[in-house]
Write a structure and sequence with these properties.
Length: 485
Amino acid sequence: MAPGTYTVQVTAPNNYAFTGSNQGNNDTLDSDVDPLTGKTQAITLITGENNLSYDAGLSIKPASSTCLTFNFKGNSATDGTDGNIRSYTEDNVSVNASAFSRDKSTGDWNKAWLGSYSGGLGVTDSSEKSGSGNTHTVDNTGRDNYVLFEFSTAVVVDKAYLGYVLNDSDAKVWVGTFNSPFNHHLKLSDSVLSHFGFTELNQTTLSSARWADLNAQEISGNTLIIAADTTDKSPEDNFKIQQLKVCVPGIPDSHSCAFDSEDAPGVGTIGFWKQWTAVWDDDNSNDCLFNNKANFADADILYTVTDPVTGTCSGKGLLVGDWNGNGATDPSERTLFYSLTEAKAILSASDSSQDCRYLIGKQLLATWLNVIAGNNADNIETDINNGIEWLQNHTPNEGGSSYGDGNLTLNASAFKVSSSNQGWQVVANPDPAHSGNFCGAAIKNVLDYYNNTGAGFAIDRDSDDIDGDLVSLLGLQTYRQEFHA
């Protein structure tokens, strides 16, 4: 070849994907092509020179995978011992989460405190003292904050829910593969960061909580970093990481919702479910009333569940929030149990502003019936969980936990919520504890929209537009921001 500067382009064969570039410390074994483009960096050759050191790493795309969602909600202090590690497990996949900060002027790295709040994981670095106000977020307004996730197995990161946002939520992401990082904790530095191989920016103009779609090339790795945008010349990004969805290659996809069906019948309103109790009465002898009709389930949709308060196992009830469909309330789930009698009574209650808890209760039950009937819940799952949390904050505690159990008749006069109550209205400034007490009307409207259309409210990652009929939704932007703070 003539002397000059060249770039090598590699095309991945069918069913193959590029691995991350420059993984590990051995340059003779790593991949040298950008996984996004398949191209190497510029290579300069002089007269008579051969350079055969550039190669491409390829892996077979798995035929299937299982996807799971980590939930990082908590109620920790805003500061503590720097370098703490928080551990989480979902479906036999574990992850250790920790925090670091980097001084922009000196380049010095330091361990930081990783807190867990109702809005998700946030960082307090040593320059932010006690983390008061909004400083206990993943931010770039002083030092750059980084959250490191070290998994027990290789995963493909899908998306992250930024449950609390102040000003903006531009993020930078790194995916890499290291030698057993779950058991051998990494200490972040410029050198370690350079060996992650794959990085991308996730930018938005939104100032509210959002799902951030990550890792468009579906790079597999056992380490992930999410940071506030480290390239921002006018830094103003502040967010918390509430949920993280990842997929494990090679295992059939179970999704975070176990009920999704390709033959879903379509959604029904409160009126539909009130009329067609035969679809969910745990009595298969009357399935002939509906199973030959279009847009109906093929059989009774109820399954055996356990009341988390009494421990009673019965098919005669609904366990709202049982996303994996195992009939039990797992440590990562917050659920509400209603017997068939209770559920039918709630659906038939009059729409009185004397107690707005029934307005959410009716929509929540209809939404959950739509979900277990097989309808897609991707864009409504978070809102169902919010409805559960809202009711738990406005009902008495029967089971000895730290929150209520959804009973709308027990001590009703003490717990009722009127339409003028700030817990029902969308408020600009929630309580400092961000307890999830607020925005009841907005949650109800989101659930109502789903029950009428089958569509949740989602944010398009390319345009940042919010899908859905905003006229029917009270205070979506404020609800997304304040409920998850």
